TrEMBL record:
Organism ancestry: Bacteria, Bacillati, Actinomycetota, Actinomycetes, Micrococcales
Superkingdom of this protein's organism: Bacteria
Name used for this protein in its record: ABC transporter permease
Matching PANTHER family: ABC TRANSPORTER PERMEASE, ABC TRANSPORTER PERMEASE PROTEIN NOSY-RELATED
Organism the protein comes from: Homoserinimonas hongtaonis
The entry's keywords: Membrane, Transmembrane, Transmembrane helix
Length: 270
């Protein structure tokens, strides 16, 4: 039986440590700004210029392979370019936010305790192994989800404010983005965090855990490349299908991680 008070105390402790670290907080601010403000602003303000659009790797192929009917009828080439990037091209990119946030916060979850020499005290608390894993996971998942949701709200305001005049009215969000934000973001954040916590438990330095955490971004990059090359379109059906698969994967991965992290093993690696 999991004691919520013990798990909550661990989560609050980790949050206090995160907020005191400038090295952690700085990228947590920069990453959302990049994807929620800078990139969409650049696309809307300059992306309707054919010369600029052609300079974006894979963008020309992406536009050429767009299925019919995914862009509202009557749009000019410039309007189509802006709409396609904001609604479709950026969709998988947005999933990088919870993955990167989780990689920054979760990579120091256990190995950070080792470096600060606080792990022994933590391991001798009444926390069970399962509560320890759950607390470390939640301490990273919750900020990753909240930052991604806040980024989505900012993204929505930016693209509608700047893109509304270009596209003759409000056009965002779409149902695909609703699924991404409400389902895929939490599921991706949870999966990334579980895997990174598992790596953190076996690493001896935060840098080593972060290096391994970068590999978790690769599947998201694969989706970006697949869409840019015309192999798939990240639409509502794909988002729903991915959400269903991730529900199963998340459940299995958490069970495996919670079953493999043991305080005795961590103590022997100190």
């Amino acid at each position: 039986m999991i004691d919520r008070r013990r798990v909550g105390a661990l989560v609050r402790k980790d949050w206090n440590e995160l907020t005191r670290s400038k090295q952690i907080m700085a990228p947590l601010v920069i990453i959302p700004l990049l994807f929620a403000i800078f990139i969409p602003s650049f696309v809307i303000l300059l992306g309707n210029n054919p010369a600029v659009a052609s300079s974006i790797t894979g963008f020309g192929t992406f536009l050429e392979t767009l299925p019919p009917g995914v862009v509202p009828a009557g749009y000019s080439l410039e309007q189509t370019a802006v709409y396609a990037v904001i609604v479709y091209f950026m969709a998988p990119f947005f999933l990088i936010i919870p993955v990167m946030v989780a990689s920054i916060t979760a990579s120091s979850s256990i190995v950070g305790e080792k470096e600060r020499r606080t792990i022994e005290g933590l391991l001798y608390t009444p926390l069970t192994d399962r509560e320890l894993v759950l607390g470390k996971v939640l301490a990273s998942v919750v900020p990753a989800i909240l930052i991604a949701w806040a980024s989505f709200l900012v993204y929505t305001v930016v693209v509608n404010t700047l893109g509304g005049p270009v596209l003759d009215g409000l056009f965002f969000p779409t149902w695909t983005w609703v699924v991404i934000v409400l389902a895929l973001v939490p599921l991706v954040a949870f999966l990334a965090t579980c895997l990174i916590v598992a790596v953190s438990g076996r690493s001896t330095t935060v840098q080593g855990a972060q290096g391994a955490a970068v590999l978790i971004v690769l599947p998201v990059v694969g989706v970006v490349v697949s869409q840019a090359s015309g192999l798939m379109l990240f639409d509502t059906a794909v988002a729903l299908g991915a959400s269903g698969v991730l529900v199963v994967v998340d459940t299995v991965v958490f069970a495996l991680v919670a079953g493999n992290i043991r305080r005795e093993r961590i103590l022997t690696q100190l």
